[in-house]
Amino acid sequence: MKSKTLIIFTVIIFSLPCFAWSNHAGLTYIILKNYWKKSPPANVKAESLANFLNKEKEGIKAVLTDADEYGAKLLPHCPKPDISLVFHPEGIKKKEDLVPAFFRALRVFPHHKPSLYIQSVLSPPQNIQSKELVNITTLKDKGRLVSEKFVALTEGANVSPLDVVATAVDEPDYDLDFYLFTDNDSEFGKIYGFGTQPFGDPRFEYSSQAPFHMGFFHESSLTLTVAGFLKRTYPEYRIYQFTKLAEYAFKTGHTYWGYRFSGWALHYIQDLTQPYHSSVLPRVGFGKRMGVQLLSIIGIDSPKANMVEYVVNRHSLIEEYQYNLVREILLNKKEDHPVYTALSVAPEKNLDAWKDFNYIRDVVSKEAYTTAEDADLEIEHLNIIKYESLYPIEHPLNGIIAKLLSNTSYHTRVYAKTFFRP
Fold it and tell me: What gap in Å lies between CA 370 and CA 282, rounded to an integer?
């Protein structure tokens, strides 16, 4: 029975899109622009990662060690890295060589390109791929990024923290978490210690990042017992790593990297506010999941196929609609739109709610999980199969997206108030 249930979970989890909110940059730009409206922070000077690492290498080594100890203590499936991966800057002569060593110590994609650039979220869709795009991602399928505008920065250039964070918050989707498992056909995946990929299709670049961007912490104990692989997720580890690096960068006067690392951490927090990244199958009980699997075993496959299609369609609809809607709001300054209001107006909640890193699981993810059923039901009633175009402002889908993004706005503000220390 356990193996049969595992099959249905595996089929569905392999089929899910691996993005959450697909326009992190636009969302964050609106949220922080209004959060900082009365007192925007001063511009910062762009700094290469190589220079930052070269100046602060010994302190960074301690930060990375602390993060690995935290990850191993919190997550049984996240052991400390192999000794060969530990950051040993004293043995590195060229500062440029510090960067791949740093990435390997973080256990991210070691060929990530930490270029100096900003994403211009206020620019209209580009007809020609930005020349800078090849300098910021190794993605084979660049998807929507080919229509985004990216602008290169020079070392020492003045840039606003708003632009730094809004740009950085998209960056983890560019390749930071690609091919990190032993079955991803990468040499580094074989030594990073994360084991085989628990879910998502290990053959594909986007899918290989899924366990780092989802967190199914609040599924039933029965579900997590039968489908134990759902426990093997890592967003908390990433949030802790990048937050601690940001704190160190702020403390040592490297404000640009304080904001950029903060943007990286925010990405995973925002991912967990998306209901389908915190709940595997909203409104589908354990009995129904088993029922469709048993029907499939006797040759009746349509119920299982319909269930998979149903979940994938909901997930994809929200991502596609939100991406295009936020871009439309920014380009045409639709500040009367309910989604703009949801992002720009601070919810009437305590922004000092973050007490420790348990907040990620106990508040952010739990809220998304409990919201998932209502949101899924509301979307079902709309009978919209897939994204085709944006709807008029009064359309119910805009209200659904606004309610969900209000949570994203709140948790982004909580993080900003807690950790942005220029």
Answer: 9
Q: Comparing C-alpha atoms, which of 397, 372, 381 is closest to residue 284?
A: 372
Amino acid residing at 89: P
**Per-residue pLDDT tens for 12-27?**
554 455 455 679 999 9
CB 4 within 8 A of CB 290: yes
Distance CA 171, CA 408 (A): 18
Instruction: Give the CA distances from residue 74 to residues 24, 77, 81, 168, 309, in Å, rounded to whole numbers and listed in that order.
Output: 27, 9, 15, 26, 34
> For residue 203, what are the domain limits?
2-419
pLDDT at 221: 87
Please indicate, yes or no, whether the overall pTM of this predicted structure exceeds 0.85.
Answer: yes
Residue 119: strand pairing partners: 150
Interatomic CA distance for residues 53 and 93, integer angstroms:
12
Dihedral angle, C-alpha 181, 182, 184, 186, nearest 10 °: 100
DSSP for 289-333, please give it. Answer: HHHHHHHHHTT--HHHHHHHHHHHHHHHHHHHHHHHHHHHHHHTT
At 2, is the pLDDT very low, low, confident or very high (cuts 50, 70, 90)? Answer: very low
Alpha carbons 302 and 295: distance in angstroms, whole number: 9
d(CA 185, CA 182): 7
pLDDT at position 269, please? 98
Number of structural domains (the chain) is 1
Cα→Cα distances 401→296, 340, 356, 378, Å: 34, 10, 28, 11
**Structure-token pair, residue 161:** 């923290």
**∠ at Cα 171 (134, 70), nearest 5°?**
135
Express each pLDDT in 332-373 by its tens digit.
Answer: 999 999 999 999 997 888 999 999 999 999 999 999 999 988
Identify whether the C-beta of residue 281 lies closer than 8 Å to the C-beta of residue 311.
Answer: yes
**What is the torsional sign of CA 369, 371, 375, 378?**
positive
Angle 302-331/366-382 helices, nearest 10 degrees? Answer: 100
